Amino acid sequence: MVYFRLLASPIQGLVVHRREKVKYSVIFGVVEVNSPYLWHKQEGWGVRPVVKKLGIKHKERSIAVKRALTDFGAEESFGQAAKRFQEHYGWTVERGAIRREVEEIAFETEYYVEKRLLALETKFTNFQFMLDYAHFKQHLYQAVEAMELEPSWRDIWLH
After folding, report:
1. Between helices 125-146 and 151-158, what is the axis angle to 10°?
2. Per-position pLDDT tens, the chain of length 159
3. Which of 6, 17, 23, 85 has CA atoms 20 to 30 A from the CA of 78?
4. Cβ 85 vs Cβ 99: under 8 Å
5. Do 104 and 67 touch, CB atoms closer than 8 A?
């Protein structure tokens, strides 16, 4: 595709249509990154290489920041988590941002767990049946042993 070729080597005809500064949160603070929008006039298409290649979007957070916010927010109140984050990393995050981050991770986790459980449920349905049958068979053996039948009848029931 043309976009991947663009990122590997420059293409003739691309001009900077507009330059925007993208604010991206990393563990050391908020970083502003130039994110030019490149436009190809003759073919009528454009691309933003910073978004396509680096995955950096405006007002997003790095994985490390998301992890820290989620860890602090899960352990204590969101207000206390904001104070703790500021103590650890030296820059402030609003408690509402921590709440949104924790909720987003919680929804993703819930979806992942449900998906995994559904896969396991379908995979082990036969296994559960085999366990139920083995449990039933064990109780059958105990009942037959308790009936004190003659040895010949006991052999018929147990085999």
Report:
1. 170
2. 344 444 544 667 788 888 889 999 999 999 998 888 888 888 888 888 888 888 888 889 999 999 999 999 999 999 999 999 999 999 999 999 999 999 999 999 888 888 887 777 766 665 555 556 666 666 656 665 665 555 555 555 455
3. 23
4. no
5. no
